[in-house]
Design goal:
CATH class of the largest domain: Alpha Beta
Shape: globular
Order of helices and strands: EEEEHEEHHEEEHEEEEHEH
Radius of gyration: 21 Å
CATH superfamily of the largest domain: HIT-like
Number of helices: 6
Strand order of the largest sheet: 3-4-6-5-10-11-9-8-7
Largest sheet: 9 strands, antiparallel
Strand content: 15-25%
CATH topology of the largest domain: HIT family, subunit A
Distance between the termini: 55 Å
CATH architecture of the largest domain: 2-Layer Sandwich
Number of strands: 14
């Protein structure tokens, strides 16, 4: 049955669906649910008193890791092979005689850990701009190096214990694989289909439209734009985009890398100031595939970063992806536009 036609639609009051063109899927938005009282799980606040150096932290300079190897006394970024990698380069083939219901393929690759800074009590928004530029330069170097061999190089950071980060030290991981993982493969198909139909990269057009509308922009600069995407699933999810057509992070100019460092600091500082806590999140970069794809036309791709914070109502109340989200489709309570309204009063000065 159709709803009453004499009521004007209000996205803050009426549930509705929003389309995610990057995943060819729909998100259920139910903003009115934010009025309900919360009696669910409350998380412990993040640890605020982290020592600058901990002799038991395997990521600190000079310390030994679980495999007995010692870290150098590094004073900038530091990259090493993951001691417990999910991917290794020498996995055997699974065989060609496969049942269609029980298929498997060989998974090969490498997993690296990258420390951003020698201090454990610092995070990206608290680092100096030139230090963040060094992180970006190292990201670009790893994508270029591993991308000569592997089709996909995934840079990702899990920040905070709430996101499963086991070591309170500023770091990320870089996994390179001989296959295109599910999410980038889906994104590749969707961006390619949009490009073939409209003749312009989807996310380049999207950034232009968001910059014009100013309805969901969190922070922006002459080279970069960070928005709460129209189709966001997580309450404070953001999408970071270059304004120029860029395929991979290694393609960024020196000026764009400096601009990226600046806007990352602004965005992440806003996150921290929202609930006055070191904001947890999972983030990662998506760019055009590498390896054999380097010889192909990837004009449909646009470099972008996803930030997925779990928090919902406060520093101790997070969103759960359970029930309907697992069995039916993604759902959110707060509209992206309401998030922007909340963020307008959040400053970009660093927490001390």
């Amino acid at each position: 049955m159709s709803g009453k036609q004499d009521v004007s639609f209000d996205p803050k009051e009426h549930q509705h669906l929003r389309y995610n063109p990057l995943r060819d899927s729909w998100v259920l938005v139910s903003a009115h649910r934010m009025k309900r009282p919360w009696a669910g799980q409350v998380e412990r606040p993040p640890e605020e008193h982290i020592p600058r150096y901990d002799p038991n932290n395997p990521l600190c300079p000079g310390n030994k890791r679980a495999n007995g190897k010692g870290n150098p006394d590094y004073d900038s970024t530091f990259v090493f092979e993951n001691d417990f990698p999910a991917l290794q380069p020498d996995a055997p083939d699974t065989g060609s005689d496969q049942d269609p219901l029980f298929q498997s393929k060989a998974a090969r690759g490498v997993c690296k850990v990258m420390c951003f800074h020698p201090w454990s009590d610092i995070t990206l928004p608290l680092m100096k701009k030139e230090e963040v530029v060094k992180v970006i330069d190292k990201w670009a170097e790893l994508v270029e190096e591993l991308g000569t061999i592997y089709p996909w190089v995934q840079i990702f950071e899990n920040k905070g214990a709430m996101m499963g980060c086991s070591n309170p030290h500023p770091h990320c991981q870089v996994w390179a694989s001989n296959f295109l993982p599910n999410e980038p493969a889906l994104s590749d198909r969707c961006q390619r289909a949009y490009y073939q139909k409209h003749g312009e990269p989807m996310l380049l057009q999207y950034a232009k439209r968001e910059a014009e509308k100013k309805e969901r922009v969190v922070v922006e600069s002459s080279d970069w734009l960070a928005v709460v995407p129209y189709w966001a699933t997580w309450p404070y999810q953001t999408l970071l985009l270059p304004r120029r057509h860029v395929l991979r992070i290694s393609d960024l100019t020196t000026e764009e890398r400096e601009g990226l460092a600046a806007i990352m600091k602004r965005l992440l500082t806003k996150y921290d100031n929202l609930f006055e806590v070191s904001f947890p999140y999972s983030m990662g970069w998506h760019g055009a595939p590498t390896g054999p794809y380097l010889k192909e036309d990837n004009s449909h791709w646009q470099l972008h970063a996803h930030y997925y914070p779990p928090l919902l109502r406060s520093a101790t109340v997070k969103k759960f992806m359970v029930g309907y989200e697992m069995l039916a489709q993604e759902q959110r309570d707060l509209t992206p536009e309401q998030v922007i309204h909340l963020c307008t009063c959040v400053h970009t000065e660093q927490r001390t």
